[in-house]
Design goal:
Blueprint: H1 5-8, H2 19-26, E1 32-33, H3 45-55, H4 67-77, E2 84-87, H5 90-101, E3 108-112, H6 117-125, E4 129-133, H7 142-148, E5 153-159, H8 171-180, E6 186-190, H9 202-206, E7 213-218, E8 231-234, H10 237-246, H11 254-265, H12 267-290, E9 295-296, E10 302-306, H13 310-319, E11 322-323, E12 325-326, E13 332-336, H14 340-353
Parallel strand pairs: 1-11, 3-4, 3-5, 5-6, 6-7
Antiparallel strand pairs: 2-8, 7-8, 9-10, 10-13, 12-13
Length: 355
Amino acid sequence: MCVCPTVKKLKPYQGGKPISELQRELGLDNVVKLASNENPLGVNPKVVAAVQKAAIESARYPDSNGFELKQALSAHLGVDFAQVTLGNGSNDILELLARIYVCKSDDEVIFSQYAFVVYSLVTQALGAKAVITPADNFAHNLDAMLATITDKTKLIFIANPNNPTGTLLSDKYIYRFLSQVPSSVVVVLDQAYFEYLETMDNAVNWLGEFNNLVITRTFSKAYGLAGLRVGYCLSTAKIANYLNRLRQPFNVNHIAQSAALAALADEEFLAQSILVNRQGLLQLAKGFETLGLDYIPSSANFVAVKVDDAPNLYQKLLTQGFIVRLVEMPGYLRVSVGKKDENKAFLNALKLLLR
């Protein structure tokens, strides 16, 4: 059988180790997962009720157009209904955008060093040319990105806040960048962690000015729906039309749509999630400082901490029942914010292992 060479060279995306897997491997009863940037509060009780109700209707296909959820997002964000596209997680949309705009092997996709690994995966899968710009103190260097744009550039990925570094670019910096990017180049502003910023939603206002801008967001983080895979993007109606031509029918299932509707409506749970995250970031930062460890100040729901021999320490933490994340930055582990007692237990285990 003939397999596409670009697929042969791909290394599958490795998600954070599941709790059940570590329990099987090491026979542990208590495991704390701080690896996948999930909401430590778990699932909103109102979402659970919505899921239970929707489950009764599981014999029916979902609304392929996601009318109710798109309508709710449209009203919540102040955009036209036609500007909203739903995805099976925002990853789904990132891949769809690449498939729409990257057509030839010499097409170029720009993204930063230390950026979300999926940008590299989708570029490689399509056989396109990845143009990776050097990071500036672990953050995106937008001026370097501008300097690499050519007539072959089709797509630019910008994560803000960025994963795995947690770094944040100012709205002023991003706006200046967008003003200088040719309109023929699509800029994807990946805002998976946007809700944690507690700032004005300026990016949505830019959609009326830049018809090459696409904003991607997700219900997986602050809304606590990582297991149901619901993401969306905001764009011009024209771009949304192309996305809807290519996306799989029923790409967001009925239970997931119902859960997202309930999550979007519950501002109290979202506020609590943001508060717990803010407190957790401070707790982890203080803990790392006490241990004499450098870390990257984060605007997301995780912290990248610098350690000696990260792979070895990662394995040692597993034996103690703590799952963190090895990332593509040598010498760093990414630690998701957990509940207060989980963060404390992790820091205590880390202290013992660093002796």
